[in-house]
Design brief:
Shape: globular
Number of helices: 5
Low-confidence stretches: 1-23
Strand content: 35-45%
Order of helices and strands: HEEEEEEEEEEEEEEEEEEEEHEHEHEEH
Radius of gyration: 25 Å
Helix content: 10-25%
């Protein structure tokens, strides 16, 4: 009897060990195309990405797809049946469980305790939006004059640029403070749907198509932002002059500041390094993809022109006032992008608070904003916002104006 009892205990233990080993066997993580969905404000924001093997057994790479844009995310690790994705220097992440060709978990903006959203993804699905009208599509391609309405009734203008191939639609919105970068979606009957996810922006746009008009538009962004919008097709649609929105207040003729670099050492325009130089002050944040686009352009321009007497100073406005946090974010960006010019910790991303750090300006209404100084330290131009590569010919026009301005300053 005792023998049978102990034999039963041994068999039970072996069975439990077998089950335990079976349960702990990691699920397969398929490589290839995925369709992700982040749920925000009751709306599903779809996006596509590719998972690739990394250099180590538990390391992977994610490629985010938005129109023609491809964003490499190289901080993807696996532990057991969990996948952890850190989105470059944006201080955001996805944590998800792996099971049966699916990922289920959360998207988290780590700098905010209240910004956690649901996430799921399905393997081998390259559709972004699922059509509901049996392939019937309306032609939405063109340029539109658009007006957005915030929840408090405040309005702001925009220009929509849309291209279409079959039912697939790509494009962007330009505003006076920057563009919405690469959007991708679908024309489904009389419904227009567009989305973008780049690690920090969670953009979802919907509208009805009525002839040459876009009506009943909604714009959702992350946990709190919801706006309505409408537009009318207009090939001449335009915005205000972005060189006229930010300017020096009356009584000021110079820029002046003393901000610490990431090592805590104070830097100002009176330092010998910046004397008799053409200086561009770049107001930016590492959390801002438009700023990322601008930084990549400025990096290459600076490398090509620094020997001609050009300098750039990046003034970083981060999501937290803590210096160690801010300098850590900036250092990570500098390392990943190979930024060769000076970066200073100037303040926080709150626009009202940021404006207080540079009291000679009428305001700071956009990240990024660029201030152009001649060799005598005079402010020659201030450009609000940035029309990035996702805006096509508008980006080319910005490049042309930038080149004309900087060549003029460097030749003096």
């Amino acid at each position: 009897m005792k023998y049978a009892y102990f034999l039963g205990i041994i068999l039970l233990g072996l069975l439990q060990l077998s089950c335990s080993n079976q349960e702990s066997t990691p699920q397969n993580l398929p490589l290839g195309i995925w369709r992700g969905v982040i749920t925000q404000q009751g709306q599903e924001l779809p996006f596509n990405f590719t998972l690739k093997a990394g250099k180590e057994a538990t390391a992977f790479e994610m490629i985010l797809h938005n129109g023609t844009e491809r964003i490499l995310v190289d901080e993807v690790t696996r532990s057991g049946d969990s996948l952890f994705i850190t989105f470059n220097f944006f201080d955001t992440e996805i944590r998800a469980g792996i099971e049966n060709n699916t990922l289920v978990g959360t998207y988290n903006k780590r700098y905010s305790d209240e910004h956690i959203l649901g996430f799921r993804a399905t393997f081998n699905d390259d559709k972004r939006f699922v059509a509901k009208n049996d392939g019937n599509t309306t032609d939405v391609a063109g340029r539109y004059q658009v007006m957005f309405v915030e929840e408090d009734g405040t309005t702001y203008p925009a220009v929509a640029k849309l291209e279409q191939e079959g039912s697939r639609v790509t494009g962007t919105f330009l505003t006076e403070t920057g563009d919405y970068r690469y959007l991708e979606g679908i024309a489904d009957g009389n419904d227009l749907k567009l989305s973008a996810f780049d690690g920090t922006h969670l953009f979802l746009f919907t509208a009805k198509v009525a002839g040459d008009s876009l009506t009943d538009g909604d714009f959702w962004h992350a946990k709190y932002t919801h706006e309505t919008w409408s537009g009318v097709k207009n090939p001449e649609a335009s915005l205000s002059d972005q060189y006229a929105l930010t300017y020096l207040k009356e009584g000021y003729d110079k820029m002046a500041f003393s901000f610490p670099n990431t090592e805590g050492e104070k830097v100002s325009l009176t330092d010998a390094k910046y004397q008799d130089k053409v200086v561009i002050l770049q107001i930016f944040g590492t959390w801002c993809p438009n700023c990322l686009d601008e930084t990549l352009y400025y990096r290459d321009w600076y490398n090509a022109n620094k020997d001609r007497g050009a300098e750039i100073i990046g003034l970083a406005y981060e999501n937290k006032a803590d210096f160690d946090y801010a300098s850590g974010r900036v250092n990570k960006m500098v390392k990943k992008l190979g930024v060769p010019y000076e970066m200073l910790i100037a303040g926080t991303s709150n626009k009202a608070e940021a404006s207080k750090t540079l009291p000679m300006l009428n305001h700071i209404i956009s990240f990024p904003t660029s201030i152009f100084l001649d060799r005598k330290g005079n402010v020659r131009r201030i450009h609000t916002g940035f029309s990035g590569p996702g805006t096509g010919e508008d980006y080319e026009k910005w490049q042309q104006s930038f080149t004309e301005l900087t060549e003029e300053l460097l030749s003096e």
